């Protein structure tokens, strides 16, 4: 079920200030839900608390605050989702933002300079994607933005805004497809048994799922109609896919990939399957059973021994009495 | 004739020696019985994916296991009455092992219900009851300590099983883990092997055999067999005559003592405990979800349960030691009621706890209260009913508790779903337990007074100079004491008196 412009969508307006500690780029991915009402550029920016925060923005550390406001969007016009980054005054730090997109949207990226730095003159902001410079920068008082229409995979990537003044400060937006989580720990199964591997997509609905298995260095697609008695691919819901491998053998051991196809590209999740022979758990099993048998035998033998000793003592006692 | 060494002690009850090995065996056995159903929950996610079932269908496995463990109590009691603790526990261990090994080869969720739920659950039931029973057969003076130590097996096993299960699962998958867990459960057989049979009157057989004649020995042996039936005040001779003319009621009572339902102390215990279990387990089940609900991350929430288990581990033997002290032991029922009410008070105060620190404090107090109640759970029943009838009593109590134990968490869950707030569940649990504690307190006060009255009447009868002082009379008194239901101090004093009578009788 592809997410498209059709239909009503909940609108969100996001205003972001990034927080960095030690320059780590790990940010929570943002959800690009729309939208502004009416025209594309009538964006209400929520500034509450921002200025209060600026006094704390002296170092490379910023605090992240997300303001969400849900507005029902009337999707007749192209809606743009705005992502904004506040640039710190100190150079050397690079701000990164991950934006997840699964379907074609319009995006406005803007880099805003904190108002207290507005005294700086001769500020030049350049927007780049790779080596390619982007023209048509929308400049407002303190921010520079670009509008992009992301319609296919080629438009995804990293967009950076660089402020050239006394120092060079830059921020990068990473536009990417949703990530698919596989499983970190291997799935353990046994020869002759069935293995079920599950891949889930959180929050985004892919158009299609494909499974691959790694053969050496290649990845081969799994065709379940061809090998129907070996592989069964099920989708319980659009966000979840199941791969069932029947009659496992040692050869089925290895790495598997589940690939989700979105409008804007594909994304893979990794799973590992381990196929063990039944001898593997049998050894600890037999070891423990042997331990149990040995302990029980020892306990019973000890009991018989102490009973015998008691009986001998009694016999002696009786004999002493009879004397 | 030099009296044998046994005369100086309470006859038949070592209160130590091999008893400590028995306590260790009970520790292992009880630990498995309580901790295993909780520990097996780690595999549920994977099994759910494998069979493609919903979570509630998987949760039935745990419920069936728990229900069988408690519900098969009477069967366990009957078997112990018939065959003694040791064979039952060994058989139970074998059953658990077979259940889990066959679960490793299951191909449907229904088979899992049977193998893990019924068979393993039944095996665990055959482990739990006899372990508790045999402590009563080995200990009298130090019984609370022995009980506390044995019950400490539950949190220790839980703390061991949880990471062990995770390790097994990561390395062997769920099938291999079930196979290995089956082997681990066979260790219950080792615990069972430690349960050397001991009869309450058997040691006295030794002391008396050399002093009396062969018929005296015969009387002792028949007395052992009759001990399971309802104790009466009928003297020895008529008892032997009645043996042939037993009606079916007494025959049934030989296996499972239904006459306990006429026993005042038993009824008080039953009602109080059935009420208490309605609110006993739900807070543990919902502690981690509640923590996550108020915003605590998953690992810290799991850590709360670890804190609970560790405090529980320490609290149980400590409670046993406290309950054994001479101030508490005669009033142990009050101590038990207090700990139940304390538990309830903790739950009532829990909604006031805010943030992680508050929850940690709650976990500590909850662990303490939980351990106190569990340590004395069976000790108080033994105290009320006496070691001889305890076998049947524990079976009847567990099947009655079975219903409320199973109902508790779902009722709590319904409250949470209806109101969307966890605090009503805590209030319900707290209120139920405070009510149970108060009920037990009041009723036990009444019970103690009635027992004191009955004791006075009995003493007055004994002092009656018309009664003949024979061997039989002395032994009759002593047997009445072992089968007597009353506060422990009384039997202890009585036993000493009885011994004095025996010694006097032989001279």
UniProtKB/TrEMBL annotation, chain A:
<feature type="domain" description="Ig-like">
    <location>
        <begin position="88"/>
        <end position="173"/>
    </location>
</feature>
<feature type="signal peptide">
    <location>
        <begin position="1"/>
        <end position="26"/>
    </location>
</feature>
<dbReference type="InterPro" id="IPR013270">
    <property type="entry name" value="CD47_Vset"/>
</dbReference>
<keyword id="KW-0472">Membrane</keyword>
<dbReference type="InterPro" id="IPR003599">
    <property type="entry name" value="Ig_sub"/>
</dbReference>
<keyword id="KW-0732">Signal</keyword>
<dbReference type="InterPro" id="IPR013783">
    <property type="entry name" value="Ig-like_fold"/>
</dbReference>
<keyword id="KW-0812">Transmembrane</keyword>
<dbReference type="Pfam" id="PF08204">
    <property type="entry name" value="V-set_CD47"/>
</dbReference>
<feature type="domain" description="Ig-like">
    <location>
        <begin position="178"/>
        <end position="277"/>
    </location>
</feature>
<protein>
    <submittedName>
        <fullName>Embigin</fullName>
    </submittedName>
</protein>
<dbReference type="Pfam" id="PF13927">
    <property type="entry name" value="Ig_3"/>
</dbReference>
<keyword id="KW-1133">Transmembrane helix</keyword>
<dbReference type="InterPro" id="IPR036179">
    <property type="entry name" value="Ig-like_dom_sf"/>
</dbReference>
<keyword id="KW-0393">Immunoglobulin domain</keyword>
<dbReference type="InterPro" id="IPR007110">
    <property type="entry name" value="Ig-like_dom"/>
</dbReference>
<feature type="transmembrane region" description="Helical">
    <location>
        <begin position="285"/>
        <end position="305"/>
    </location>
</feature>
<dbReference type="InterPro" id="IPR003598">
    <property type="entry name" value="Ig_sub2"/>
</dbReference>
From TrEMBL, chain B:
<comment type="similarity">
    <text>Belongs to the major facilitator superfamily. Monocarboxylate porter (TC 2.A.1.13) family.</text>
</comment>
<dbReference type="InterPro" id="IPR036259">
    <property type="entry name" value="MFS_trans_sf"/>
</dbReference>
<keyword id="KW-0812">Transmembrane</keyword>
<keyword id="KW-0813">Transport</keyword>
<keyword id="KW-1003">Cell membrane</keyword>
<feature type="compositionally biased region" description="Basic and acidic residues">
    <location>
        <begin position="490"/>
        <end position="507"/>
    </location>
</feature>
<feature type="transmembrane region" description="Helical">
    <location>
        <begin position="18"/>
        <end position="37"/>
    </location>
</feature>
<feature type="transmembrane region" description="Helical">
    <location>
        <begin position="360"/>
        <end position="378"/>
    </location>
</feature>
<dbReference type="GO" id="GO:0015293">
    <property type="term" value="F:symporter activity"/>
</dbReference>
<dbReference type="InterPro" id="IPR004743">
    <property type="entry name" value="MCT"/>
</dbReference>
<feature type="region of interest" description="Disordered">
    <location>
        <begin position="457"/>
        <end position="507"/>
    </location>
</feature>
<dbReference type="GO" id="GO:0016323">
    <property type="term" value="C:basolateral plasma membrane"/>
</dbReference>
<feature type="transmembrane region" description="Helical">
    <location>
        <begin position="266"/>
        <end position="287"/>
    </location>
</feature>
<feature type="transmembrane region" description="Helical">
    <location>
        <begin position="145"/>
        <end position="164"/>
    </location>
</feature>
<protein>
    <submittedName>
        <fullName>Monocarboxylate transporter 2-like</fullName>
    </submittedName>
</protein>
<feature type="transmembrane region" description="Helical">
    <location>
        <begin position="91"/>
        <end position="124"/>
    </location>
</feature>
<dbReference type="InterPro" id="IPR020846">
    <property type="entry name" value="MFS_dom"/>
</dbReference>
<keyword id="KW-0769">Symport</keyword>
<dbReference type="InterPro" id="IPR011701">
    <property type="entry name" value="MFS"/>
</dbReference>
<feature type="compositionally biased region" description="Basic and acidic residues">
    <location>
        <begin position="457"/>
        <end position="474"/>
    </location>
</feature>
<keyword id="KW-1133">Transmembrane helix</keyword>
<feature type="transmembrane region" description="Helical">
    <location>
        <begin position="335"/>
        <end position="354"/>
    </location>
</feature>
